Amino acid sequence: MSHRLQIRVYYEDTDLAGIVYYANYLKFIERARTEWVRTLGIDQVRLKAESGIVFAVRRIEADYLSPAHFDDLLDVNTSLREVRGARLILDQAVLRRDAVLFQAVVTLVCLDAQGRAARLPADIRQRIAETAA
């Protein structure tokens, strides 16, 4: 199952040429990951409060394929590639209509309150794993 978030490119997202500044793609995919987790019924504030667990980006492999421009309407697609005890690997892509502009493989890790790797609670891991089915 893939999650889709629509994002409009605003002037603040662009450089002087009206092209989306490269670092803003990372913001777009971060926003989409947050909404993906929300659609799974996972409250990240409660998860942190109850178990001390937070998600952190460990690694990103990113490919910038074509520029987005001011006022473009973009789709950010997020899909689960793999879930492990303390790690999630996601595929994310930013598209304008059917054209892929940016794609990334994002590795997230779960950290405890002390910043050490921590296993996801079993119920949350199962909820996430079900999205790949």
From TrEMBL:
| Gene Ontology MF term list | fatty acyl-CoA hydrolase activity
Entry protein name: Acyl-CoA thioester hydrolase
Q: Which Gene3D superfamilies match?
A: Hotdog Thioesterase
Assigned protein family:
Belongs to the 4-hydroxybenzoyl-CoA thioesterase family.
Instruction: Please indicate if the UniProt record lists Hydrolase as a keyword.
Output: yes
Which organism encodes this protein? Answer: Albidovulum inexpectatum
Q: Which domain of life is it from?
A: Bacteria
Record InterPro entries: 4-hydroxybenzoyl-CoA_TE, HotDog_dom_sf, Tol-Pal_acyl-CoA_thioesterase, YbgC/YbaW
Transmembrane annotation, as ranges: none
Coiled-coil zones = none
Record has Hydrolase as a keyword: yes
Which keywords fit this entry according to its UniProt record?
Hydrolase
Q: Short name of one Pfam family for this protein?
A: 4HBT_2
